[in-house]
Amino acid sequence: MTQVEHGALTSGVRGMVVTVDGWPLPGAAVTIIGITGQQLGRAAADDTGAFAMPVSAPGTATVVVAAPGVDPLARTVSIHAHGVTDLGSIVLGSARRTALPAPGLWVIDPAHTIVKAKARHLALSHVEGRFKEFSGQIRVAEPIEQSSVEVSIVAASIDTGNADRDTHLRSPDFLEVERFPELTYRSERVVRHTDERWRVDGLLTIRDITRPVALDLTYLGTGPDPWGGTRIALTATTQLARKDYEINWNMGLPGGFVLVGPTLRIDLEVQAVRQD
Length: 276
Description:
The protein is mainly β. 3% of the residues lie in helices and 54% in strands. The protein is built from 1 helix and 18 strands. The longest helix has 8 residues. It comes from Planosporangium flavigriseum.
């Protein structure tokens, strides 16, 4: 394969090959084919998913991208006569994603699941925390839209990597964990946009205050694990307004800024194991 450094290319084609959840696909084969069927260029993605290659002729062409474990992709592109044609991110879906999870009970595996929250700090950067103790289940129904989710999170398990900050987050200024030891989420409706993109509408309770919250969910597939089980994997994200749960503590800063931003971004990475 003809390949040059991604940043060193002065004429040709470059881009990135990634999964639907943004992970690079090292070694993905990228082939450029002209309208008469001739091969104009070929390269392999590097460890970051990037590829770059000279192309023997400009004009309309087809880029074909393939990698193990994902569905191949072909799309028409227009290659510039001069300079670099940047194809951006080329997203390949898992070949296993066409199969929806089997109906039944799937229990969330805490050892391979991440529940994290991120807040704006000093109007400059972000502080991220993870909840270390939680449990939950996904009951897959047929049809899939009748499925349900239940999750319980131990409020005191919040961990931002700083003991003083974690103590403050557990205090009445924030989670008030002695009075409200759990956060809970229970779904009310599942909406399937595609086999990979879903929305879960549910009720999130924090500090005994319940508000509707929608999770934007990406289904990553299902497959066997090394311990004889079957797993599903998914990611989900949402945003919460702190004021909705009466978490209003803050500190003013010069210039009208505040110490903690009003919005929390919630990101979930979930694996669940099917129960026989």
